[in-house]
Design brief:
heterodimer, A: mainly beta, four-stranded antiparallel β-sheet, 18 strands, 10% helix, B: mainly beta, five-stranded mixed β-sheet, globular
Chain lengths: 283, 792
């Protein structure tokens, strides 16, 4: 926690110290009916088409409604393309609705898909996504290594992974950059996740980087690290939903309220799509 | 194009004045000029009315008590009058230029005095509108929280001005934010006008001479902020005898001393305050953890009179607030301190009886610092974060009064701003690590203006002005014209219709934490990405002076449009901006720690109607104020780009202020003053979550872990709920007793007489039934307080 946060908490504590509190009963509080919460991210490179369904709960008052974390098991989930339509069944082991992404119902680049979810006559919602048509080209990955002498007196070996690609000109593009360390563990870093667009960069070369460090003082160099770098080209709704999540901070009481983006008509959540490019690395 | 038209108009008006004098047979003209002072102290009286009844012309004394009136050779009577002082009438045969310094004596208790041939200053005759002056003596009579007299809290009782939340001294003028007020103390800008996290203002009433608030129709001499100008002058100090005042209150004590350095020529004033909550609460704190807080401030002024032509004033303010918390038997220490320093050197020079000049050099500094100290096995860690702004200004103003029909002012101001939005110091003994990161920015802001208060006909008087503002920041500059006009048209005696238009620009932004704000204020300059804020405002109204009872009544409607005002993006929090510790991690998020990426520019609309009925003289004084207002904001990246109500949008705001001075018991030399205030305001707008649901982001290469569901809130629209309305009654009674060479006053006041639990803030909690509920925190219940003061 930084100093400024402490300052604000001090002020808040001061107010609580001299103030008195009571339950608010003299203004009308908002009441919202429960809604379906639907999440699904589809991609031609994914082996399955998976949909998660939950229900929201009104914020104030009545807490008797169901747990918002509990998957809805009795929903009717239908995904359709221009030419085909399929019912997605609930799978008990994954607690989600899924089918395989295969010839029977393939997810294809540039195609539009509709999703309709309903539970009896009580709840119904729908959404649409159009899978991006093209991946960016000229994707390159460069790995730099530097030795940093820390003030603590040991050397740190730092690997920096730089991914570069050429943005597709003439259309807005949305990206997710993610680096995972799949095997071994770095001294620090190595877990990067970023959502961004090509705003002000249309048609240009774009780059992102992520680094991790290994230590050569106590344990010697850490060897055998393996990982993956992903660049996803996403649709607008995927980008907007993940971007709005970035601003949400449930722990800091002083942030501005964030409206979480949703493209589910009659419900909440996100139905998005993406194209994936990934590169494995090994050290 | 517009600029040249306005200039042409100004030239035309000046030439009209010349035509007037040419049309009539040429008569010799002479000037009566001088300074107007208070008897016994020599304190200059700002704004005194100077009037020639036979010719129905007049003028007013300027900010330094100087007046000048030029008339044709004749025998004339000139009357001098000022609220709270006995008017004086002089018979003068004008056959040469006359230097006439006038001394007025204070009349008891702002009583209405028989007016012979003079007349009091009438609002119906002034060309300005949306301006309110508060007599300092009234501020001292109005009951206050914990007995701490506070000029800014009195200003909040005026129509068009709102307070932010319970006990907060911040001003929200005509829908503008607290960052949009220009607060000047003896020409120096004050950046943070508050003590104790905003509960008290830093202006010590004992050291002040005058306070003037302008809400609209800004004259061209003011610029740099969008919403209001609060012009505060410090007293000069008595030139005749040593005087003093000591006050003891519940939470603070104060002392003021003033007197001549060289009788009649030079005087000084010093005034200071300090709170003592820290001393009182220290014994009650546990040893393991303690919390302490205090503030003090200090005002000083000296002046020297070099004769009638030159006067020199030096004045300064210094104040500090410090809060401290110790945990872990003193091994962990947290400190927060902030404060302002201002210094002003002013030189008045009289070129001739019509031309007066003032040159000011000012310095203003605001800084806040937080320090975190950890002692761990003799290995100390200390981190310090500070932020501030320092200004150096030069200002030159000319007052020229060629005839009673014109009062021309012109001048310039140039300010060098040095911002330190973030300075970080880290000392780590264990790792032998020292780090100092200081970020500074420099800008120059300038303004040049000309204005004329001109009588076009006897019915029509106009204040016409033009200001050009210029701002240069690293690599970027702005030059903007700001036309200003305000005027009155006398419909009949004592009734006028008024209108005004003002265009304003603001080249500095305040970043403050939502809801809490206060001392963590961060001032930053306009930049490429976050351009200057601008606004224009129209106002129209009626002003009426009544004679029996002596009341002034005004009703004004206003419309203000603001552009490029700043708002915080959804999810933005300034508490995380300057944290150097968080700077690790990904290489790609550097822009995220820049403040520019957390704010967004938008627009605002404010409109409303204000009613103000004021009684300034008599045993009973006070006012009734009512405001009906609407304030909406629009930002592309907030609330899906739709308009929403501002947090401080307040539909109804009303205040009643009454002060009654009982007749003096002359035998016992005792008198009693009763006072009461009542305020009402619609609750602040508020965003509340309507429902909760879970987040399921896509994580490439990872199957989401089902056990770590993050919970999200669903919001409908920004600020679509209202807190409960605010209302409160305060009451005060003062017992004055004149002693042989002094006067003592006991005061008992009661804050929040009917113990209304007003909302300070709301937070979400669960009740016994495990249901989520909204909890209200109220700050001040009924609080009686008493204070004692002794004046000699």
């Amino acid at each position: 926690m930084n100093n400024l946060k402490k300052t604000a908490l001090l002020i808040l504590l001061f107010a609580l110290f001299i103030g008195c509190e009571k339950e608010v009963d003299n203004i009308p509080l908002p009441k919202a009916e429960p809604k379906l919460v639907v999440y699904s991210y589809i991609s031609p490179s994914d082996s399955i088409i998976e949909v998660e369904v939950f229900i929201s709960a009104t914020f104030f008052g009545d807490n008797k409604s169901r747990d918002i974390r509990e998957a809805v098991r009795n929903a009717t989930v239908v995904i359709s393309s221009n030419s085909n339509s399929v019912l997605i069944p609930f799978n008990d082991s994954s607690n989600t609705y899924f089918i395989y992404n295969n010839e029977a119902f393939p997810i294809l680049a540039g195609e539009q898909y509709n999703l309709v979810v309903s539970v009896g006559k009580e709840f119904s919602c729908n959404s649409t996504t159009t899978v991006p048509l093209r991946k960016p080209d000229q994707l390159t990955i460069k790995i730099d290594s530097t030795i940093r002498n820390s003030s603590e007196g040991f050397e740190e070996l730092i690997y920096n992974h730089i991914i570069r690609w050429n943005d597709i000109p003439g259309i807005p593009n949305y990206y997710q950059f993610k680096m995972n360390i799949d095997k071994g563990s770095a001294f620090s870093g190595g877990d990067c996740n970023e959502i961004f667009s090509d705003l002000n960069n249309d048609g240009n070369f774009m780059a992102r980087s992520c680094s991790y460090s290994t230590v050569s003082f106590f344990a010697g160099p850490i060897e055998g690290i393996e990982g993956t770098i992903y660049l996803l080209t996403t649709d607008f709704s995927y980008y907007k939903y993940h971007k709005s999540l970035e601003g949400f901070d449930s722990e800091n009481p002083f942030t501005e309220p964030v409206k979480i983006y949703s493209n589910i008509n009659g419900g909440l959540g996100c139905f998005g799509s993406y194209l994936e490019q990934s590169v494995n690395f090994k050290k | 194009m517009k600029l040249s038209l306005v200039l042409l108009l100004i030239i035309k008006l000046f030439s009209t004045g010349v035509v007037y004098s040419q049309e009539q047979p040429k008569k010799e003209k002479y000037t009566i000029s001088g300074f107007i002072k208070e008897i016994g102290s020599g304190e200059l009286l700002v704004g005194t009315n100077v009037f020639v009844p036979s010719l129905q012309v007049g003028t007013t004394a300027n900010n330094y008590g100087f007046y000048s009136i030029t008339l044709e050779k004749d025998s004339v009577e000139v009357a001098f009058s000022f609220v709270g002082y006995k008017p004086r009438l002089f018979k003068i045969y004008l056959d040469k230029n006359i230097a006439l310094d006038v001394e007025l004596s204070s009349s008891n208790n702002l009583e209405a005095v028989e007016i012979i041939a003079s007349k009091r200053e009438k609002i119906s005759e002034s060309s300005r509108m949306s301006v309110i002056e508060i007599p300092i003596s009234q501020i001292k009579d109005i009951p206050a929280l914990l007995g701490e007299k506070d000029a800014l809290k009195v200003i909040q009782l005026l129509p068009g001005v709102q307070s932010g939340s319970e006990g907060n001294s911040g001003l929200y003028v005509r829908g503008g934010g607290p960052d949009q007020n220009l607060i000047i103390l003896d020409d120096a800008t004050v950046y943070n006008a508050f003590h104790l996290f905003g509960f008290f203002s830093l202006f010590n009433g004992d050291a002040l001479k005058s306070i003037e608030l302008t809400k609209g129709g800004f004259p061209a001499r003011y610029g740099g902020r969008l919403s209001s100008v609060l012009d505060i002058s410090m007293k000069e100090g008595s030139k005749e005898e040593i005087k003093g005042e000591v006050g003891i209150g519940l939470i603070s004590s104060r002392a003021t001393l003033e007197g001549p350095l060289k009788k009649g020529k030079s005087s000084f004033l010093i005034s200071g305050r300090r709170t003592y909550i820290d001393f009182l609460t220290k014994p009650l704190m546990p040893r393991e953890e303690s919390f302490g807080y205090f503030f003090y401030d200090f005002n000083a002024k000296v002046n020297y009179d070099f004769g009638n032509k030159d006067k020199l004033y030096l004045s300064g303010y210094f104040g500090r607030d410090k809060a401290q918390a110790n945990y872990n038997v003193g091994n962990e220490e947290f400190e927060l301190f902030w404060g302002n320093v201002t210094g002003t050197a002013r030189w008045n020079h009289l070129f001739n009886e019509k031309l007066f000049a003032n040159t000011s050099l000012t310095v203003s500094d605001y800084n806040f610092t937080t320090v975190n100290k950890n002692k761990f096995l003799n290995q100390d860690f200390e981190s310090e974060y500070s932020s501030g702004i320092r200004d150096y200004s030069i200002k030159f103003d000319l007052d020229y009064r060629p005839s009673p029909r014109h009062y021309i002012r012109m001048g310039f101001i140039s300010t060098y701003h040095l911002y330190t939005p973030s300075a970080v110091l880290i000392k780590d003994k264990a790792l032998n690590n020292f780090r100092r990161d200081i970020l500074t920015q420099k800008t120059i802001e300038s303004g040049i203006y000309i204005e004329d208060d001109v009588h076009i006909t006897n019915r029509l008087k106009v204040n016409l002005g033009l200001r050009a503002s210029h701002f240069i920041s690293e690599g970027k500059q702005y030059l903007r014209p700001e036309p200003r006009i305000s005027g009155r048209y006398l419909l009949k005696k004592d009734l006028s219709v008024k209108a005004s238009f003002a265009s304003m620009n603001q080249y500095i932004h305040l970043l403050t934490q939502t809801g809490v704000g206060l001392s963590t204020d961060l001032w930053v300059p306009a930049t490429d990405k976050v351009p200057p804020q601008s606004s224009y405002q129209f106002a129209i109204g009626l002003a009426k002076d009544l004679n029996n009872p002596e009341l002034t009544v005004s009703i004004e409607g206003y419309y203000k449009k603001s552009d490029q005002i700043i708002g915080y993006k959804e999810g933005a929090s300034f508490l995380t901006i300057p944290s150097p510790e968080d700077n690790g991690g990904s290489n790609n998020t550097i822009e995220e720690v820049e403040w520019e990426s957390k704010v967004t520019s938008g627009q605002g609309w404010s409109y409303g109607i204000e009613l103000f009925v004021q009684k300034k003289v008599g045993r009973f004084t006070g006012w009734v104020g009512y405001t009906l207002s609407y304030t909406k904001l629009q930002f592309d990246s907030i609330n899906s780009g739709e308009k929403f109500w501002a947090r401080y949008d307040r539909r109804h705001d009303a205040s009643l202020v009454g002060i009654y001075k009982l007749k003096e018991n002359e035998e016992k030399r005792k008198k009693i003053t009763l006072s009461a205030t009542w305020v009402y305001g619609t609750g602040n707008a508020l965003t509340l979550p309507v429902s909760q649901f879970i987040a399921r982001p896509n994580v490439p290469g990872r199957n989401p872990d089902n056990s770590t569901f993050e919970t999200l809130n669903e919001y409908n629209k920004v600020n679509d709920f209202r807190m409960a309305p605010y209302h409160r009654l305060d009451f005060g009674i003062q017992f004055h007793k004149k002693l042989e060479k002094a006067e003592r006053t006991w005061e008992i006041s009661i804050y929040n007489v009917y113990n209304r639990k007003n909302p300070f803030f709301y937070y979400v909690n669960t009740n016994a039934k495990n249901e989520r509920v909204l909890k209200q925190v109220s700050l001040f219940p009924i609080i009686p307080s008493f204070s004692y003061s002794y004046k000699f």
